[in-house]
From TrEMBL:
Belongs to the glycosyl hydrolase 3 family. It comes from Candidatus Gallipaludibacter merdavium. This is beta-glucosidase. It comes from the Bacteria. SUPFAM superfamilies: (Trans)glycosidases, Beta-D-glucan exohydrolase, C-terminal domain. Pfam families: Fn3-like, Glyco_hydro_3, Glyco_hydro_3_C. Residues 656-725 form the Fibronectin type III-like domain. Keywords: Glycosidase, Hydrolase, Signal. InterPro entries: Cellulose_Degrad_GH3 (IPR051915), Fn3-like (IPR026891), GH (IPR017853), Glyco_hydro_3_AS (IPR019800), Glyco_hydro_3_C (IPR002772), Glyco_hydro_3_C_sf (IPR036881), Glyco_hydro_3_N (IPR001764), Glyco_hydro_3_N_sf (IPR036962). Its EC number is 3.2.1.21. One of its GO terms (molecular function) is beta-glucosidase activity. The keyword Lipid metabolism does not apply. It catalyses: Hydrolysis of terminal, non-reducing beta-D-glucosyl residues with release of beta-D-glucose.
Length: 736
């Protein structure tokens, strides 16, 4: 009877076991044929630039799973041929590349893409990038970078979607969708890579590769949600970060890679190290040698080694010594093969020739639209912009005609000569005479020798358009600055242009926020671009001449002084929020110790930024009504609907981005003064009113507690629908 029962249960269990996914079956089959060395070979990613006999031999022997950086389609196909036809099991390679904000047609840097507040244009840009890159054989890009970045000194803020958790999630997901589509096996789909996991943006003093200390509560509330959103969006791969986090380098972190990524989030994609980050665990002081590093990375569930040679040189011994189990190796190889199957590489390993793959007119048009929407109007005194009744413009400044700088950091394959610069774009306009004189040769140029000529050009024109900012080389990886003011003699140039008395329009092209309040003060109007790509010039010409209306908004806080950094809108209130501000020059001599202030601000900078997160003007103006809630009480299993009327009270039809913020007034852990929970970019015709509608649920109000559980606490909340993170009058609601 007992036996009958046991067999009965076993039969029942078998009947209930879902049939295995066909991809998993194929993986099982392949895995069963692989030697340990072949498995370890899959875990090895090498720099594949060029085609050496040695590299071919390694591919043939099954010692390489992926190559990065080769973009010549003939070379890609030849290497693939060696893998597929000459290696024992014929497992195809995956070719990877950093396609970060475009492949050939370059889009705004990710910080600029975030400034569009338009996930659709971001997705469209990623789609273009994927179409161009896959034509060169690239099926895996190391993007999006969804590191929340709150320190403008950090050069890699350029590659991020800015300071906000929610925006990083939304833009990250849009980018992933654009690359991957909903069919990874499509020949134009490219596997995305959510990076850098995790906390890289919190590097101390904004210095690249630096240590981070992130309490788990903050990690879960601020840094992890964008990565969780990437998992939910089906992001095919993840990349470890270079930094150590609370003392453990990410590449060796069981907590991040096993507990959170694999166990909590059940992620079945591929996790790759960053370039050499396995080896870097030695100088971190976490591993004694490469063998130790390989052991720690493998046991932290890192699947693929990018350019440390740690796995290929040591894993076999580590398995034989029992320090890494074969099960661990199998798991990693499963994740790698799964990606290759999902990409359809076993069926279609080769890249077909595509006619005219790059810079198609529709790609350039999308890039131009992205550049337009990424441009932020910070100031427009007396409605200087758009220009009207202007017959001549002086086009001056070191960035007015430099293709390589406007395309920004991280565009290995972008061709500067394909950029259309502002000067070229203005020269194409009819009825506007362009008087061009850069004044400075490049942004760091300290020589003032050319300034006189720029001033002379300014005097001859109706309006001065001055293009300043940072060269591309000043932002991006390892390009951190302790002083984030305008480099070189640009400030002097602006001063002398101002002295001409001509209307002065500043166009800033930079990779990060800059502390340039003084220069902005001198200008009549300021347009800001985070390096906006191939089509930055035509976008600016359209905006300046009024063919397009600015709609970009800041995805980062613009500080007044570098000492305010890190500065972000969703800070805590403190026990002494800023009030009664007395600035340094107003302090009476010999003032008593507590005669001023005693609240949270800087004596020299006050408490406000130069411009807040979410800020951006238009040529028209918008009037926000009070948000109306469907109910002032939200139940734990319910939701409320928020509507708000936004009226275009100016003369131009334009986009406006309405932003939804909330605040938990009293909680068991202090909560930020505002948190972005949604936004809507709407087109509103002059004189018309749009109604924006948001839904807020308890999950939107949840935060991580001391026991690491994330849920919303009952109590009173504030809610804003506003034009930026500082405007609006809050309405109250209660979570029951
Ligand atoms: C960067 C990564 C990049 C990798 C491969 C590293 O230096 O940190 O973001 O994907 O190189 O080029």
């Amino acid at each position: 009877m007992k036996h009958v029962c046991i067999w009965g249960i076993a039969a029942l269990m078998l009947a209930c076991t879902p049939t295995k996914d066909p991809v998993e079956q194929k993986i099982d089959e392949l895995l069963s044929q692989m030697t340990l060395q072949e498995k370890i070979g899959q875990m090895n990613q090498l720099n594949g630039m060029g085609m050496s006999d040695d590299l071919k031999a390694q591919i043939r022997e099954g010692r390489v799973g992926s190559l990065l950086n080769e973009v010549n389609v003939d070379v890609v196909n030849e290497m693939q041929r060696v893998a597929v036809e000459e290696s024992r099991l014929g497992i195809p390679l995956i070719f990877a590349r950093d396609v970060i904000h475009g492949f050939k047609t370059i889009f705004p840097i990710p910080l600029g893409q975030a400034a569009t507040w338009n996930p659709e244009i971001v997705e469209a840009g990623a789609r273009v990038a994927a179409k161009e890159a896959t034509a060169s054989g690239i099926r895996w890009t190391f993007s999006p970078m969804i590191d929340v970045s709150r320190d403008a000194r950090w050069g890699r803020i350029a590659e991020s979607y800015g300071e906000d958790t929610y925006i990083n999630a939304v833009m990250g997901v849009a980018t992933i969708k654009g690359y991957q589509t909903d069919n990874l096996a499509d020949s134009t789909a490219m596997a995305a890579c959510a990076k850098h996991f995790c906390g890289y943006g919190a590097s101390e003093s904004g210095k690249d590769y630096n240590t981070t200390w992130i309490p788990e509560v903050q990690l879960r509330d601020v840094y992890l949600p964008s990565f969780k959103a990437a998992v939910d969006a089906g992001c095919a791969t993840f990349m470890c970060s270079f930094n150590d986090i609370n003392g453990v380098p990410s590449t060796g972190s069981k907590f991040l890679n096993k507990r959170i990524l694999r166990e909590e989030w059940q992620y079945d994609g591929l996790l790759v190290t960053d370039w050499g980050s396995m080896q870097q665990m030695i100088p971190h002081g976490y591993c004694s040698d490469m063998k130790d590093a390989a052991e720690k990375a493998a046991n932290a569930a890192v699947d693929m080694d990018m350019m440390s040679y740690g796995y290929i040189d040591h894993l076999e011994d580590l398995v034989k010594e029992g320090k890494v189990s074969e099960k661990t190796i199998d798991e990693a190889v499963r994740n790698i093969l799964r990606l290759k199957f999902r990409l359809g590489l076993f069926e279609n390993p080769y890249t077909a020739k595509v006619e005219n793959p790059y810079y198609r007119p529709e790609y350039l048009e999308t890039a131009k639209q992205a550049a337009i929407e990424s441009t932020i109007l910070l100031k427009n005194d007396n409605n200087v912009l758009p220009l009207s009744n202007v017959t001549s413009v002086a086009v001056v400044g070191p960035l007015s005609n430099v293709g390589v700088d406007q395309i920004g950091t991280w565009c290995f394959d972008g061709e500067p000569e394909k950029s259309v610069t502002p000067m070229q774009a203005f020269q194409q306009l009819e009825n506007v005479k362009v008087i061009a004189e850069p004044g400075l040769q490049y942004s760091r140029d300290k020589s003032q020798a050319g300034i006189n000529k720029a001033v002379a050009a300014a005097k001859k024109a109706d309006v001065v358009l001055c293009f300043v900012g940072e060269e591309a080389i000043l932002s991006g990886e390892a390009k951190c600055r302790a002083d984030i003011s305008l480099p070189g003699a640009q400030s002097q140039l602006i001063k002398e242009l101002k002295a001409t008395g001509k209307p002065l329009v500043l166009v800033v092209m930079a990779g990060r926020p800059l502390t340039m309040g003084a220069e902005i003060n001198m200008a009549d109007a300021v347009l800001w671009q985070f390096h906006a790509g191939t089509m930055a010039g035509p976008a600016l010409a359209d905006l300046i001449m009024g063919k397009a209306v600015p709609s970009g908004k800041l995805p980062v806080t613009m500080p007044k002084m570098v000492g305010q950094v890190p500065m972000y809108y969703s800070h805590k209130n403190t026990g002494r929020p800023a009030s009664n501000i007395t600035l340094i020059d107003d302090i009476p001599v010999a003032a008593g110790q507590f005669s001023i202030g005693s609240t949270s601000y800087h004596l020299d900078a006050g408490d406000k930024p130069l411009y807040p997160f979410g800020y951006g003007l238009s040529y028209t103006s918008f009037e926000y009504g009070q948000p109306v809630l469907s109910d002032s009480v939200m139940k734990q299993d319910g939701q409320i609907t928020v509507t708000c009327q936004v009226k275009n009270i100016g003369k131009y039809d334009a986009y406006e981005t309405a932003q939804l913020y909330t605040r938990d007034l009293v909680a068991s852990l202090c909560q930020p003064v505002r948190q972005l929970k949604g936004f809507q970019k709407v087109w509103i015709k002059a004189g018309e009113t749009a109604t924006v509608t948001f839904t807020v649920k308890p999950a939107d109000l949840a935060f991580c507690h001391e026991d690491m559980a994330t849920y919303a606490e009952p109590g009173e909340f504030h809610l804003w629908v506003s034009a930026d993170s500082q405007q609006g009058i809050p309405v109250k609601f209660v979570l029951k």
